[in-house]
UniProtKB/TrEMBL annotation:
Top-level taxonomic group: Bacteria
Protein name: Uncharacterized protein
Length: 226
């Protein structure tokens, strides 16, 4: 084999590895934490179905306080533990008007921040009417930063006894979501969105959660540094 042929062979192998490791965006089954489908496993790894709320997250008093703040009825959301999964929210296709919030079954601690973020997605989906109306493919960053903003509001209203810095850090951890910045925004933008909700400056104290979310979308989202 000539030197050129060997070089071309190495290039082809490298290109194949890139294709396998970094598939095209449209082929990614989990583009962000707000999605209508959930895929686990592949040809080599069997699918492990999600199961009951083994961590008792739905019974957690802080989670319940956030749901009250978000005006989400307690029976509207079912929490599910997923082996090998991650945090995400979706409509419950088997129960119209209800939602699923899923979390990795191996989670040991620091689950509150991403759970609040997912509950914020429930607020967004309820207001929009359904997931499709949110148009997550074209509005992912606005939706994700909006959820971080709502998480800040929830912290201000329902979780003040906790450490805000720790909460924000946990919200930003890349390992919590396993997504790229194009979906959720870079950490500094997520921090700005969270702190805007956390400070709850005018006019937010006089607005309902849904009104606050709409005001954020119309005004404060544009102020996040691009």
């Amino acid at each position: 084999m000539t030197k050129v042929a060997r070089w071309l062979t190495k290039l082809a192998v490298f290109a194949t590895l890139l294709w396998l490791l970094f598939p095209a965006r449209g082929e990614n089954p989990l583009p962000n934490c707000l999605y209508g489908k959930y895929t686990q496993g592949n040809e080599e790894t069997a699918v492990e179905p999600c199961g009951p709320d083994t961590k008792g997250i739905g019974a957690d008093t802080d989670v319940q306080a956030v749901m009250r703040t978000f005006e989400i009825p307690p029976n509207m959301v079912a929490f599910q533990a997923c082996p090998g999964g991650r945090f995400l929210a979706m409509p419950n296709v088997n129960d119209d008007g209800h939602f699923l919030v899923r979390y990795p079954s191996h989670v040991q601690q620091n689950y509150l921040a991403p759970i609040v973020h997912e509950l914020a997605h429930v607020v967004q989906m309820r207001d929009a009417g359904n997931l499709a109306a949110l148009d997550p493919k074209n509005n992912s960053r606005r939706i994700e930063l909006g959820a971080d903003f709502l998480a800040g509001l929830a912290f201000n209203i329902a979780l003040r006894r906790l450490n805000g810095d720790d909460f924000e850090t946990n919200l930003q951890l890349a390992g919590s979501y396993k997504v790229v910045a194009d979906d959720h925004g870079p950490p500094e933008h997520r921090g700005q969105a969270f702190r805007r909700g956390l400070t709850r400056m005018d006019p937010y104290p006089n607005l309902t959660i849904v009104e606050a979310m709409r005001y954020w979308n119309a005004n404060d989202y544009a102020r996040i540094r691009r």
